[in-house]
Design brief:
The complex is a heterodimer of chains A (126) and B (100). With 126 residues, chain A is an alpha/beta fold. Chain A has 3 helices and 5 strands. In chain A, strands 4-3-2-1-5 form a 5-stranded parallel β-sheet. Chain B has a single domain, classed as DsrEFH-like (Hypothetical Protein Ychn, Chain: A), CATH 3.40.1260.10. Chain B has a 5-stranded parallel β-sheet. Chain B starts with a strand and ends with a strand. Classes of the chains: A alpha/beta (126), B alpha/beta (100). The interface between A and B is medium-sized, with 19 and 14 residues.
């Protein structure tokens, strides 16, 4: 990527954490990509909304014994990544509200997300 | 935009989400286990017929063949394509969203 060219990157997350590696890998790529100073949009659809559930406890003593990477979402603002979007229908279908999330997000209707998708140069799917 | 679906609609909601977020003038390519959505006589036939009003829908013929199916089993309007066609779709409709 040549210097000065800013592209719009969307990371589209559709998997719950821990059951598969997708959620963690997405976050890793987001953090790596942050170094390139592109416009970044994180979108959470379907089971992807579970990634943002607060109070995850995965430690050896009371949990499944893996790293709790949900705290990393709170660090994203340090990388100037502030565009986190949640699909309203996915959230509602799972009985979640904005208060369930570990970070502030913008809850959008499908039509708004559809529009956002159309504006992207690159979409990375997880 | 090109949307790709490679999971069976009977197992995952990938197709459903794809159709919910696809915009008019986008294209959808069904491949791997996603090809089952292209078949006539399934419970998704009406969904696909309606989707054809909005989007161009393609199916990768090699994945039909691999699963013992031929193009005569696919819903009218869904267009079979080969690997070269897959590449052409990526070029024409870029960017790509893969509904994994």
């Amino acid at each position: 990527m040549s210097e000065g060219v800013t592209k719009k990157f969307m990371y589209l997350n559709r998997k719950a954490p821990y059951g598969t590696i997708y959620a963690l890998e997405s976050l890793e790529v987001v953090l790596i990509g942050a170094a390139f100073e592109q416009e970044v949009n994180l979108v959470f659809i379907d089971d992807g909304v579970y990634q943002l559930k607060k109070n995850q406890n995965t430690g050896v003593n009371s949990g499944i014994g893996v790293k709790d990477f949900s705290k990393t979402y709170r660090a994203l603002e340090d990388y100037d990544i502030n565009n986190l979007y949640v699909d309203q229908e996915s959230m509602n279908a799972r009985g979640l509200t904005e208060e369930d999330f570990i970070v502030p997000v913008q809850v959008l209707a499908a039509a708004q997300l559809r529009e956002l998708m159309q504006q992207q140069d690159v979409i990375l799917s997880f | 935009m090109l949307h790709t679906v490679n999971k069976s609609p009977f197992e995952r909601n990938s197709l459903e989400s794809c159709l919910r977020f696809a915009s008019p003038n986008d294209a959808v390519l069904l491949y791997e286990d996603g090809i089952y959505a292209a078949l006539k006589g399934t419970k998704f036939e009406t969904t696909m017929t309606n989707a054809l009003q909005q989007f161009k829908i393609y199916v990768l013929a090699a994945d039909l063949e691999a699963r013992g199916l031929k193009t005569d089993r696919i819903i009218a309007g869904i267009q079979p394509t080969d690997y070269g066609g897959f590449v052409d779709l990526v070029v024409e409709y870029s960017p790509v969203q893969a509904w994994l």
